[in-house]
Write a structure and sequence with these properties.
72% of the residues lie in helices and 0% in strands. The chain is an all-alpha fold. It has two domains: 90 residues, Orthogonal Bundle (Rna Polymerase Sigma Factor, Chain: A), CATH 1.10.1740; 80 residues, Arc Repressor Mutant, subunit A, CATH 1.10.10.10. Helix 6 crosses helix 8 and helix 9 crosses helix 10. The radius of gyration is 20 Å and the shape is elongated.
């Protein structure tokens, strides 16, 4: 089953097979051919550019990681890629809905939008283990975590605000949370 894209001339199924073998150039070809349309789909679902960009980024990470699981006998590559995007966008929507619905008085009491992350950390009780653990993190990573979890910024919004690539922000948050968990445990 060979589905070359009429618009781009790429063979998505062949490039997915190459991705499964670790060929980064194949992922780049798929990205170049599909990212614009994928962003449009994600924007229609999520209605916020930062969230749509996050969904597209996450979808391509998943395409890279799961390329081995693509089975051309079950459908074409483009359908598979867009299913991954749709699934990720719906998960983001679900997460956003949950955070919009959850009343978090602690977050509202701790920080206003004008406060910088360091002020928020400084206001935590001196005896608080969380403050101690947060202060053990590198300052820029600590700021990213505080902006995400106290101010509620998405990864995409953090990347824009801090002028740092989205993948780096995600890695900082993930590693920072692991460090905090280890410190608090």
């Amino acid at each position: 089953m060979n589905h070359a894209s009429a618009a781009t001339g790429i063979d998505i199924e062949a490039d997915l097979a190459r991705c499964a073998a670790g060929d980064e150039a194949a992922l780049r070809r798929i990205y170049d051919a599909e990212a614009g349309r994928m962003l449009g789909v994600a924007l229609r679902l999520l209605r916020r550019r930062a969230l749509a960009e996050e969904a597209v980024h996450d979808a391509f990470v998943q395409v890279w990681r799961a390329a081995r699981s693509f089975d051309p006998s079950r459908g074409n590559g483009r359908t598979w890629i867009y299913a991954i995007l749709r699934h990720r966008a719906l998960n983001i929507l679900r997460d956003e809905t949950r955070s919009d619905l959850s009343a978090d008085p602690v977050g509202e009491e701790v920080a206003s939008d004008e406060e910088d992350p360091e002020t928020v950390v400084a206001r935590l009780s001196d005896a608080d283990a969380l403050k101690r653990c947060l202060q053990g993190l590198e300052p820029r990573r600590r700021s990213a975590i505080v902006l995400a979890y106290v101010h509620g910024l998405s990864h995409g919004e953090l990347a824009g605000r801090l002028s740092i690539p989205l993948g780096t922000i995600k890695a900082w948050i993930r590693r920072g949370l692991l460090s905090l968990k280890e410190c608090l445990g």
